[in-house]
Amino acid sequence: MTVSMQLGNRLVGEHDLPYIIAEIGVNHEGSLETAKRLIEAAKRGGADAAKFQTYKAGLIASKFSPSYWDTSKEPTTSQYELFTKYDSFGEAEYRQLAEHCEKFEIEFVSTPFDLGAVEMLEPLVKYFKIASADITNPPLLKKVAATGKPIILSTGASNVAEIDAALAILRAAGARQICLLHCILNYPTRDQNAHLGMLTGLHNRYPELLLGYSDHTLPTEEMTSLIAAHLLGAVVLEKHFTLDKTLPGNDHYHAMDEFDLARFQVKVKKVHELLGPTREKSPIATEDLSRLNARRSIVLTNDLKSGHTITASDLVAKRPGTGVSPMSWDEVVGKKVVRDLPEDHILTWDDLAKS
Q1: Based on the number of CB atoms within 10 Å of its own CB, is 239 exposed (0-12), middle (13-18) or buried (19 or more)?
Q2: What does each C-alpha distance from 168 to 113, 231, 328 come to in angstroms?
Q3: How many Å apart are CA 112 and CA 349, to the nearest integer?
Q4: Spatial distance between the Cα atoms of 129 and 133, rounded to a whole number of angstroms
């Protein structure tokens, strides 16, 4: 059975074109107008969803929480201080952003980082995204699951036992549709640390779940990380999104812009075409003629008289495959022919005695 789940207006299956989430996060830097411009740019680039982050500094981090990002790009060394810069949006602003997304026909999503945020966002979103850092936060997991809405769970910095535990909590609390995102919780993630091969491990352990990838590598012209992730089974692709990658701050320099996203759309559609609609090996319809004419049949090496008992020296395997298959070679040897047959005759079962 094909794995699928409902994400907004799209039913996303494991063999579909990727569902792309433009992770705006807090790259609006507190400006509602910038946030709206980012939504419009994400739509132009071809994203399915524009995602934000909903938190209050005092609820997400203590005043003594150290950084875990590249401080040469974002010099703030306190999580509390950094989050304080960008937690100005409240319910009114998120409602406006949701309305703006609806106007431009792109899905509004925002990651909640506290229980109040879940309650505030619940009427505004069609599904929830849970950040990697909250995979070990049962109160938040339960609160999100209790909404009954589909969930995308990021797995950065987690081990299998933690993923198992989070899934058990979510399911016990009411979650029915869950997508797992492979993620490396480094900002940025170096290519050698992306470990996209872990997608294979996730698929093997959780074959019933849709898979995705949340990317923190530096964007390239080829968007190789996202292409490779899709080839390995990631159908939900999330990447930070900005209007200007040269802006200072934690989430601009490793983000994509609308031009990166538009190039990726062209490339991934080509790759998706090459992948095809199934992963099960079988001949396709356009190979029918090849199966018939490029394969071999048992062909006679010389003239045979009616009643002759066939020996191996009477036979050769030649194209086309319209006669008796060489797979039946041993069955044919020792049978009698029921009529005179010429050299190079393509043997059929009607040429042979039944016993």
Answers
A1: buried
A2: 20, 28, 53
A3: 70
A4: 12
pLDDT at 250: 67
Cα separation, 106 vs 145, whole angstroms: 24
SS (H, E, C) 186-201: CCCCCHHHCCCCHHHH
185 token code pair? 């919780």
Judge whether 158 and 181 are in contact, CB under 8 Å.
no
- Considering only CA atoms, give the Rg of the chain: 29
Structure confidence by residue, pLDDT tens digits, 7-30: 999 999 999 999 999 999 988 989
Question: Which structural domains are found in the chain, ordered by start?
Answer: 8-275 (3.20.20.70), 285-351 (3.90.1210.10)
* CB atoms near residue 195 (< 10 Å): 12
pLDDT on residue 73: 74
> For residue 281, what are the β-bridge partners?
none
pTM of the model: 0.90
What pairs with residue 51 in β-bridges? 23, 109
Give the tens place of pLDDT for each residue, 172-229: 999 999 999 999 999 899 999 999 999 999 999 999 999 999 999 999 999 999 999 9
**Amino acid identity for residue 280 in this structure:** E
Listed as ranges, residues in the chain with pLDDT below 70 are 69, 250
Amino acid letter at 7? L
